[in-house]
Amino acid sequence: MSDYAPSSGSGSMAAVDLRSDTVTKPTPAMLAAIAAAEVGDDVFGDDPTVNALQERVAALLGKEAALFMASGTQSNLCALLAHCGRGDEYIVGQLAHTYRYEGGGAAVLGGIQPQPLNNQPDGTLKLEDIAAAIKPDDVHFARTRLLALENTWGGQVLSTQYTNAACELAHARGLATHLDGARLFNAAVASGRSVGDLARAFDSVSICFGKGLGAPIGSMLVGSSELIRRAHRIRKMVGGGLRQVGLLAAAADHALTYHVERLADDHALARRLAEGLAALPSVTVTPPQTNIVFAQVSDGRTPALLEHLKSRGVLATGLIGLRFVTHLDVDAAGIDHAIAAAREFLEA
Fold first, then answer.
1. 336 within domain boundaries
2. What is the pLDDT of residue 251?
3. Range of the domain at 305
4. What is the pTM of this model?
């Protein structure tokens, strides 16, 4: 059993929290950036820090404009509502976040029908499936308006060869394209490509500052000036108008400056965890491409294993097998402790 027991500052053992990369705490430097932020009222458009961040992100992704959002769910929702009207349809993966994990917001709030397709093991949608799902211009059918993809998907990187081909198909058939790029910077670091390269083929892209990059809150929607104008109105309707949001934008700006290249450290820790778990009995591990590790326990003991890990100060999720996510608040000692805790249970 590992003797890992770092102090949380209150005398208790700190948890190795691998539930998600959303659980990070702002670093002291990020807190200093928040405290120093120049702010205004963003509803009036005069918060200089958020305005500068929007310009920075739009340029970084090669788009005309950007809009700060409270969350990735809000960013994706505003994108879907900006692209589609009531009675329209968007094509999306069966396991995509926008379809499966965002409360059905596009259907509930926008009257937009999702057309889910089976995700392939690498997260892609077959081009022939996309083509077959596009409805003819007939009153019997919802109007197919949008193709939505996700990168990374379950921690896997969609290649630019695939996304370019999918977007080319969609555009040729009159569809717009949206990318849920919550972890797009992970994809960029893992693939050695720029986020601009990964975003280029899409009409709109959503990125997240609170996943991987370590900001406490915030996402950004980028696209054409006209799309962002529509999304701005929609953001207001769904209650997303914020005031001195420069405090949050300062954290996101700090993350963009200092926390992107270090994502490679998270990816290395994920590989370390995957290799350690793969050596244990009854465990099958999907080799990670970025910072998410999926594992299956063959004897049905996943719930019991999760409880054991929790008792040893290791937190993970088990909705689809075991999922562990590395991030800037986890180090090699924590990963080794997680492996040792799993070994203690599985070899008992």
1. yes
2. 98
3. 262-346
4. 0.94
